[in-house]
Every structure is written in structure tokens, then in C-alpha cells.
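[job 0412] stage=fold_complex status=start
inputs:
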Amino acid sequence: MKAGDLVELATRNLRESVLRNSLTTVGISVGVASLVAMLSLGIGLQHLAASRLAKSGLFDSVYVTSGRRIQGPNGRRENRKTPPPPLDEAARQKMAKFEGVAEVYPDVRFPAELKMPSAAAPSSSAKTQTATETSEKSSQTPESQNLREYQLISGLPMSARQLESFDNMKGKYFSSPDAAEIILQSDEAKTLTDKPDDLVGKDVVLRYASRHLLNDDGSASAASEYGAASELSVYAVSPKEATLKVVGLVESKADAGIRGAGSAGAYVPIDLALKLEPMQMTQVRLAGDRDPLANNYSALIVRATRSSRVEEIENQIKQLGYNTFSLLDATRNLRRFFAILDLFLGIFGSLALAVASLGIINTLVMSILERRREIGIMKAIGASDGDVQKLFFAEAGAMGIFGGGIGVLLGWIIGRAINFGTRIYMQRQQQFTPDDVWLVPLWLVLGAIGFSLVVSLLAGLYPAARAARLDPVQALRYD
Amino acid sequence: MQLPCLPRRNKDRSNHVNHLMPIQNTSLDAAIQVQGLARVYRMGDSEIRAVNDVTFSVEAGEFVALLGTSGSGKSSLLNLIAGLDTPTAGSVTVAGRDLARMSREELAHYRRSIVGMVFQAFNLVPAMTVLENVELPMRFAEVPREHRMDRARAALERVGLGHRLDHRPSELSGGEQQRASLARALVNHPALLLADEPTGNLDSRTGTEIMDLIHTVNKEGTTVLMVTHERPLAERYASRFIFLRDGKLVEDPAEVTA
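[job 0412] stage=fold_complex status=done
writing structure:
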């Protein structure tokens, strides 16, 4: 019998016992819906976690430090035969050209005090957009004589805007990489004023230790004055102040990349941070260098386009002779966790489908008993065993496809409803960003219908074989 | 009843015979040779010999009536010749092929291309319309869709049911159902028509109409083997009689007929 006839006869037979077949199909639908619901939950959570992790900036970055034998953030020490290469601008450019690298920027973090501009300070400084540096003496006020807590100030690239911390920020992000602007973390902002929200648009004063070269004209006098070897560079470290405009407030601390030394409480644009020449704690390492002015960075942060590329990038950087650190292992474990989660959700979802497949077997076996005489007639007028078998297979398959289709639709509706509910719940919680926890990709739709078809055909194996084996003489006698 | 002229069976049939069943010689078409045929059913410890060492032959184009009382083995013998049942011993050769040596697939092909069957209980599929019932054997024979409806309509018009195409069997009288059954049996142009008590459920007038139809079919070249227990009917239409009692052939017709 031709396939078209087979399908036509199968659907006609299904229509004959419409209630029973519909109930069986609904059973399959529920099974498929539960499978789709479970798997789409797993996929949705995985997607959510992946996107959130990507936004956290923790899993797509490699922290690069000099290959010198100094205890780095990862605590590794390696014996090298060749001297380690400098971590300078050339190295930064080289790393930026690696495939899969989105950007490379220096890790600039420095301790500083934040304070409100004194009333005596000229009001015009609050209006300027550029950093103004004033001497210690001129800015000395009674307020500044009090000991204030140090903040850790961090330089951030413009791309850090996509970090989760800035999702719901008050105000806006930096206008340019060297703008005299600052974003405060709200807890830190509370140390400045009782109404941190009012700070946006106002100026604050950043007081920090600036490191600048004394013998930058090449003379050895400064070096000898301090008793240092003449070929060495000599720095002076002095307090400086910069007036910066508060452009935004963030709730959580923005951990851009891997910051081993803890989170910063205020953020400035990266180029501004470099321009301020702050004394960084890690620069102590470089202080004794023969030529510490070779624009060496204490650390670079290499951000990958995708977290999956981190391993490859990290290996390439290691080959250049630098120390690296990333949270790659954590992402690997996370992926493993979601693979296992998906597997178990799939198994639980499939259980309902397995129960539904028993329904198919039951329906078809009942159908054989009911249509025993009809099978006998079909055989008497020329149907082969194969024709009868295929007919029952087609009926099982049709129930599978119909059930699968309806099930996917049902699962999708459930998912939408849960997404809707979750969004409302998260909005009410206020501190969370509403997100979709349910995700039904196209492959899941097609896969679920295909799986339903396969399960239905497997369920139809026994009834179809039984119908095919039916003795036509016995079947014709049946009433 | 005036019947439209039937096409010549031998000529038409060649178009629908599958390669599985080569017709060796058209002169042997539907020539039945039954040799030492036996069919034994086991019921617990006991054996029932429904057909017991039966030997006979039917020439192509003959109208043979198989007569016997109830339980004499007539229907069992007919099922064996129809390829619906497998003999315990002996052979049934139709159109030069021994049915006992055929695979199940070959037997199915034999049933859809060589044989047409009419039953006492009509055996129409209740869920299908009359037209669909007649179309069904053509689906199994893989007749192209565009020809099927025309052929089914023609077959039904031929038995006088052209106005009942879309009715379900339950909406038809017994005689009409048997006509539909006959149209279905003939739609694939079989060489052999096997009729199992075709008038058993019909009144005498309707029975006569059905027998007239079968007789016409026979006149047009189809071999007919009809099981009946009504001797007057057999005498009126059949050219030869075979008598059966307790599964065996008997010589004296007086022993088996009413």
C-alpha cells in the first residue's frame, strides 16, 4: 500500500474512535508538554546563568601579570630559562590582536579618599568637565583634616557598561574614556552624604597618592640626591586631588574582570585613571626596576568575545611568557552542572511520555480487538501482513505527531505563563532584573515532536505486529 | 436485471498482475487443482479434520457449486483455496502456483489480484462508505489514485448501486450490501470468484438477483466456485457440483443435500 493511502486510512481510522484516540493523544500531549517544560526550564536557566555570568565579567576575562617570579594572584611560580617579557604597551597590542579577544585594558586600581568639595572651593570647578588637580595646601579644609576611609578606585573601560552592575544604575555611564567623571557604589556614596541619590550631577573630590617621575628629563641629579644609582628612575609620591563629576550610582559593586584585591567602591574611566598617574599598590613590584618608566603595566585584563574562547586565549598569553589567571574551571564546572541538570530534567520529562506511550499501546490493542473483523476483511481482499502492520504504525505515528505538536504548544504556553509569573515576581522583589527563565529553542520544538513520534512508533510496535499476525479466518469469524 | 457488458477478464487482468505472481499460461487461469488436501484443527487434545484428503479440479471459466451440510468443511475448503488458510497436508494449485508453497506476502498478492471473495455476512467495513469499501482492494493493489474512483463507481453501477455510493453499509439492505460486496470482489478483475453462501442471508428474490449477477460474471470468463447448502440454487446456476460431507468428497449427492 502506498504511503499516501496509509496516512489517509490511518487518519480515517483515528477519526472513527475520536474520543478514545483524542484521549490518548492528549496523554501524549501532556507527556510532551512536561518534557518540553522541563527541558526548556533547564535551557532557560542555563541561558540565564550564561548571560548573567557573561555580564558579570568574571568568566570572559583573563588576568595577565608579568611573568616575573613574584607571587601573583594565582600563586604560581614557574622557573624560566629566558627572562620574562615586559608587560608593556607592545604586549597589550599583541594580545589585542589574538583571535577572540574583545579588548585588552590595564588593571588600574588605587586607594583614594572621596570627599565633597569644600564650600570655600571655587564653584566653577564643579562645572568643569575636566579633572582639576590642586595642591595639598590649597585644598586643605577642616573637613579634610578628619580621617576618612579609603576607597578603592577602579578604572573601567567603556565596554564595562554591559556589566550587570550597571543594568539598573541611577544616572548614566561615562561619556568618554577620559571624562572627569565618577560612578559611585551607593554604600560608598552614603559615606559622603545622607542622600546619595542627590549626588548624581554633583562634584566630588578625589584625593589620592600620585606617583610621578623626578628625573624624567634624563638628568641623574634627582637620583643622586636621593642616594640612588644614577641609572635608576626616581619617583616622587605626593597627594593630589581631582574634582570629578558624579554621573551615576550603582547598587552592587562592579567586578569588572578578575579583581583579586577586592571590589572597588567608585569607578572612573580607564584613560582618566591612567592620566591621574595614581600610585598603585602593585607598582611596588616595579619600583626597583632599572627602567620602570618603560610603561610597564602591573596587570592587564584581556576580555574575550565569548567565555568559550578564554582557554585558547589564556594558553596563547602563557606562551608569550606571562602569568595568567581566569575562572575557566568554574565555567567548565558550571557547564557540566547544566548538562547534568538538563539530563535529569529530560529524564523526568520523559517519564510522563513513557506513561503516555502505555496509553498508545492500550489504545491500539483495544483497537485491534475492536477491529479484528475489519483486519480479517482487509486481509481477505488483499492486504498483506505488512500493510496491516504499517497501518497500525501509521496510526501510532499520527497520534505521536499530533500529540507532539499539541504538547509542544502546551509546553510553550506553560513556559510563557511561568515567564509572565516570574517577571511579575521579580519586579515585585525590586532588587532583581526581570528575566525569562523559560526558553524554547526551535531545536527543542522539532526534537520534542520527533521524540514523541519515535516513542509512539515504539509503542505501536507490539500492537502492529499483533495485528499483522492475526489469522484472517479467525478474524472473519469474530463478531 | 440488465447488466452492462463486462470487459474480458483475461485481457484486463494482465494489467494488474504483479511480478510476484507470473501467470504461466492464460489457459490455466483460475484452473484449480486440489490434491489430497487436508486441514486439521486442534481443539485441546482432540483433532477436527475439517477437510480430509480432498482431491478435485476446476477448469478455467467453470461455475462449480460446493455443496454440503453445515459443518461439512465447505467454508474451510474455500478458505484454503482463497489462500486465507494453510493446509495441514496436500496442495492447492491455482493458475499453476501451489498456494502451500507461497509466502504470506505472495498469498496476499494472490488474494488481491487473482481472487475475489464474497461472503455470506457481506463483510463490508462498516466505517467506510460503499464507494470506499469498493475502492479498498485497489489501495492494496496500489492502483493509481486517479483510476480508483472511476473503477469503483463503474463496479458499483454495474451491480446497480450507482445511487448508493456515499451510503454506509448499515444504511443498505442485505441485498444491496451483497451487491456492494460483489462489486468489491470484482473491482480488481479477478480470474477466480469465491462465493461463500452468497445468498445465505438474503430472501429468495434478492438471492436470485445476486446469483444472476454472479452468473453473468461467470459468463464473461470468471471462474466461480460457490459454497452453498441450497441445492436448487446450485442446480439453477452451476455447471458442476462437488459434494462434501465431514470434510470428505462424496459421490452420492443424496447424502448431502436437503
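[job 0412] summary: Chain A is about 45% helix and 15% strand.
[job 0412] exit 0
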